[in-house]
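Service request form, structural biology core

Requester: graduate student, group of Dr. S.
Request type: structure prediction, single chain
Budget code: on file
Notes: please return the result as C-alpha cells.

Sequence provided:
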Amino acid sequence: MADLLRVENLFSVAGTTVLVTGGGSGIGKTLTKAFAINGARVIIVGRRQHVLDATAREIGGDIICVKGDVSTKDGAEDVIQQVKKAVTVLDTVINCAGISIPFKRPSDNLDDPDTAADLLSQVDDADWTETHKVNVNGMGAQFKACVQPLTPADPSGPYFMTVSAIPLLRKSDNPNVVIISSVAGLVNQRANGSFTYGVSKAGAVHLSSMLAGRLHPLKIRVNCICPGIFPSEMTATTGADGAVALGRMGTKAVMRSTLGRPGKPEEIAAPILLLASKGGMYMNDTCINVDGGRWLVMKGIYDGLRLPDESYIN
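Core staff response, request fulfilled:
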C-alpha cells in the first residue's frame, strides 16, 4: 500500500502514449515537453509542419509529428489514420488546438452605446465558423472515425477530434481525454478581444461533460481544463532575445486575478499530468480552473470584490 502512495507511482506517465493537438506551440508545446521529459511517447498534431519539427528537435525524447487540420471530420480522421501507422494504443488525447479572432475595429470604450453596437455588428459568419471549427468541432473530430456515431455531430463542441480516437483509447488501461477550454468560457468578459472565442470555449466546457456521459460505457474518462492567462502565441509576443511579453489585454487580464501574474508552464502541466496518471483515474467529468484566481475575482465582482481600477478596461 505504501508503494502505491509514492509520488513516482501515483503520477508517472512513463511508457504511456499521448496525443496533443496544437502540440507545437503555446500551451500545447508546454504539455508536449511535460510528457516527453517524463518518459511518454508524444504525438503532436498541427497545421504547420515546420513548427512541429522545430518543437520535436527542441524538446527531444520520443515525439512523433503529424501534420493535419483537426477542424473537420475528414481532417481528424486523416490524422488518426496517420497515427495508426505509428502506434497501436492511445492512453491520453489532449485537445489543445484553438484560435481567437479579434474584433475588426477594437475599442476600449465598451460602455458607449454606439461602440457596443458596432462591436457586435463586426462579427460575421466566418468568425463564428472558423472559431468553432477549431475550438469546438476540431477538438471532437478524433473520436468519431472508427465507431458508429453516438449522437449526431454537434457543431458547437470539440466532438470530431475526440471520437475518432476511441478504438485506440479502448486498448489502454487508463484511457482519458482532456479538453483545454478557457476561463473565457466560464465568465462574461466584455474586455475580451473576441466574442466568438468565449462562446466556443463555453461550448467546449459543456461538450466535455456530454462526452464524459456518452463515453462512460467505454470506461474513457473526459475532463476539462480552463486556463487563465498563460504566455502563448495568442496572448504574448516573443522578442529577438527570446523574452516573452504579454500583450495589452493579457497584461490587464492577469491584474484581474488574485495572484496578479500569468501562469507558469509547470502550473498548466501539473493538473494535466495528474489527469493522465494513476493519480487521476478516479476523476471524470471534472472542470478544473487553472487561472490564478481569476474566476474567483470575476464571480466576486458582483459581491463587491474589486481589484485596482487600473486593472479594468472601462
